[in-house]
Each structure stands twice: as structure tokens, then as C-alpha cells.
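Hey, can you fold this one?
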Amino acid sequence: MKASNSARGLDLDSPGLFCESYVTKSELARILNVARSTLVSWDGIALYRIDSYL
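Sure. Predicted structure:
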């Protein structure tokens, strides 16, 4: 099943995204169809809010 890509990014009911290798934030932002700055913000939020993030 392939995630549908809408104008605002991945749809909420899209399947999870798993990468078999490392991807840069720029590559992941392109995959998710969001700005890289948004991804950096999510990264910062996760770092301070999710204990097991790293």
C-alpha cells in the first residue's frame, strides 16, 4: 500500500513510513511534502517531549 501524497503532505490515514537506510532531513521533508524547517521543529519537539527519542 502506497501513501497518498496530497497538497498538504501525507494524508492522516496513510500507512506508517519506514526507511531501510538513513535519510537526511531534506530528503525526509521531500518525502513527507513538508518544509525542512517544519521537520526541524518536529525534531526539536520530539527531542524534549519523548523520553526514548534518541
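The chain has a mean pLDDT of 78. Let me know if you want another pass with a different chain boundary.
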